[in-house]
Amino acid sequence: MHFRDRHEAGRLLGAELTPLGGQKDLLVLGIPRGGVVVAYEVAKALDAPLDVYITRKIGAPYNPELAIGAVASDGTLVLDHGLIARVGASDDYVQAETKRQRQEIERRLEAYRGSQAAPSLEAKTVILVDDGVATGATVLASLRAIRQRKPAQLILAIPVGPPETIQLLGKEADRVVCLHTPEFFWAVGAFYGVFDQTSDAEVVQLLQEPR
Fold it and tell me: What pTM was estimated for this model as a whole?
């Protein structure tokens, strides 16, 4: 299964989640940047408010795409100690990289939300959306951080991810909706026709657009 682009993936996820449409305490959260495009279509389909949930992966030394952990906007830190040992990342490296990603979270929150306060998640049905998962580190940190904010229900909605990651994330969410779980998984972008970089400006525009 391949998606034309993130918009199509979001529309297909929205169709899967239709029974939730119009529910009053519903909130859709997109993980920037690409996840916000998918989340926009989900929010539109469900007539629900849209916001961002910023979590940044902590990349391995010399291979920033490989997540050895992740940090959420409330400071929740998830580290893969086995992988950290395998790639030889020192404590100093992990601390410095965590600090750098926390600063990037602050920068993005300022860019996306300005002075607007974060929405309350308590007692809400929260749908967390990304454009796909590989190791799942970023999404795992997000789910754990959101759970601490006491939502009534926490749903993860993603277009594509490997079966073992989906299984792992299923332990953290009340429900996982994943459209495609290929056995042979190499990269999220491989399952999209168009998988270009989403800009900060595009994220801001989607957040401000009335649905």
Answer: 0.92
